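Sequence and fold:
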Amino acid sequence: MKEKLLKIFLEHEGEYVSGEKISQELGCSRTAVWKHIEELRKNGYKLDSAPRKGYRMVTKANGIHSHEIKQYLKTNYLGQELTYYDAIDSTQYAAHKLAQEGIGEGHVVIANEQTAGRGRLGRVWHSRSDTSISMSLILRPTLPPQKTPQITLLAAVAVVRAIKKNTGLTCEIKWPNDILLNGKKLVGILTEMQADPDLVHSVIVGIGLNVNQQKEDFGEDIEEIATSLSIAGGKTIDRARLIADILSEFEWLYEEYLSKGFSTIRPMWEAYSISVGTYIYARMIKDVIYGYAKGITDDGVLLVEDEHGKVHSIYSADIEIDTSR
């Protein structure tokens, strides 16, 4: 009901809508309309009311409840079912539990605040209340386990495209899963799977995005290396609309990938990459390889040619770009 009510106000932005019209469109009594209006006010929406005029939305809340996201959502299945938490340790943990319980493909877990977010190699991901996007997508692709890293690269393309559409800002991708803006980290993507040796049961794609943080919101340990869309763009971003755009971009890319393979995603990823075509250090657990990043394979593996002409296949590493060359 909240989704329908918000849609009415969006269609009549800045205008008063009579209580009678709202009750007819919602199919409920005028008393019920008043109760739904009060619920929106409790969620942070500022709504005016005037005798013989009705109700008018003055300001929207920047929330990410299901009814707020679904105002903008145009997907067939991704995000049509959402589990929302005002605060949670990690959306990844919750998504894994739901996947184990048999939840369907396309379910999304989303949180307004994440207290124990994590990235690759167990790193901490900071997600303050009301400022960021923390969500995990549950997928059930028919893929061999070795193909699932490609979904991380696909997710990066989806997020970059959605940010460009939503804000006009152009981001860059550092292999395999970091999205940078003006050289600073903006988005982290963590892809995990539940699988047997030859069968994927589910893939959980975690996305953490700095949206409306200001410089003072970042701790001293990350303030020089992290940024947000609001800092870069100089304005507050509608998180619900951005989430809907990310899910829409992800869904069509995912469908393309499942039907045609990674070869259709690869050129889009490379177009945004700052790793390819540069000299890099690929830091692995037991080794460091220095060389020229030639590109990625159709399996999403990074190819690095060292100074002796040997090409190395990099499956997992921290990448540092050599800015001296």
Notes: Residues 43 and 61 are 7 Å apart (CA to CA).
